[in-house]
Specification:
Pfam families: DUF6597. This is DUF6597 domain-containing protein. InterPro entries: DUF6597. This protein is of the alpha+beta class. It has one domain. It has 3 helices and 8 strands. A 6-stranded antiparallel beta sheet has the order 1-2-7-4-5-8. It has a two-stranded antiparallel sheet with strand order 3-6. The longest helix has 14 residues. The protein is globular and about 45 Å long. It starts with a strand and ends with a helix.
Length: 139
């Protein structure tokens, strides 16, 4: 049987008014796990299986499958802060979708993925994502 662990904590680099939390999900065991995701109005930047994705806000509950031994790190933006990652693209364009970050930040996504690949574990990867988001802040 798969065991899934989830942890979240406050950001260190990006201000709380933009970022709700940093988070990590780890799944142990040979089999995957189905995780129920409920709508929260947030956009997440996710590092999963060496892919950087922007997870748009969900309009309804859905189940996300994780593989056995899979680790996922993310940063959750507060409702209204999606423009940091989307620029001028309306958030409605990414509702119920997971889109490669490169579609919005082609010049930065590869460098960020390289830093994440060198991270010292999932918590460190979440901190790398936190610093990335903090550099997108206005001013």
């Amino acid at each position: 049987m798969a065991v899934s662990r989830y942890a979240e904590w406050r950001p260190a680099a990006a201000p709380d008014r933009y970022v709700a939390c940093l988070w990590v999900r780890e799944t142990d065991g040979p089999r995957g796990h189905g995780q129920l995701i409920v709508p929260d109005g947030c956009v997440d930047l996710v590092w999963r299986e060496e892919r950087l994705e922007l997870a748009g806000p969900d309009r309804g509950p859905r189940t996300v499958r994780t593989g056995g031994g899979e680790t996922i790190a993310g940063v959750r933006l507060r409702p209204g802060a999606a423009g940091l990652l989307l620029g001028r693209v309306p958030v409605a364009e990414v509702c119920d979708r997971q889109v490669p970050l490169a579609e919005f930040h082609p010049d930065r996504a590869d460098r960020l993925a390289e830093r994440l690949a060198r991270a010292g574990g999932p918590a460190d990867a979440a901190r790398v994502l936190d610093r990335f988001v903090s550099r997108l802040l206005p001013g």
